[in-house]
Amino acid sequence: MRIGKGGCVYIMTNVNHTVLYTGVSSDLESRVWEHKNHQHPKSFSAKYRCHKLVYFYFFIHIEEAIDEEKRIKGGSRKAKEKLINALNPEWLDLYESLFD
């Protein structure tokens, strides 16, 4: 059995919490930095200013993170809000917590 690289599914939002962006990455710290620093100016997250990390969950295998991303993206906004509220009821920016 080959063990692959792990991954993380995450949700970003804008300052007013009106837009949610769900993504997956094998390097969450770098990926969120890219969102916050407009490294991809034509992307959805840049267009809607989704710079605030409000949810993340790590998986041992990147494939699991990809499957979870698809599940979350296929769900309703209410389901996404429920995930966020369970981990982060105040919708704080969790980016700095990645470095603790």
TrEMBL record:
Taking every annotated instance into account, which residue ranges of this chain make up the domain GIY-YIG?
A: 5-82
| Keywords linked to the UniProt accession | Endonuclease, Hydrolase, Nuclease
- Name a GO molecular-function annotation: endonuclease activity
> Do you know which Pfam families this protein is assigned to?
GIY-YIG
Q: Which PROSITE patterns match?
A: GIY_YIG
CDD domains, per this entry?
GIY-YIG_unchar_3
Gene3D superfamilies attached to this UniProt entry: GIY-YIG endonuclease
- Tell me which InterPro entries the record gives: GIY-YIG_endonuc, GIY-YIG_endonuc_sf, UPF0213_domain
Record-linked SUPFAM superfamilies: GIY-YIG endonuclease
Q: Which family does it belong to?
A: Belongs to the UPF0213 family.
Q: Which PANTHER family match?
A: BSL5627 PROTEIN, UPF0213 PROTEIN YHBQ
Identify this protein by name: Putative endonuclease
Q: What is the lineage of its organism?
A: Bacteria, Pseudomonadati, Bacteroidota, Sphingobacteriia, Sphingobacteriales
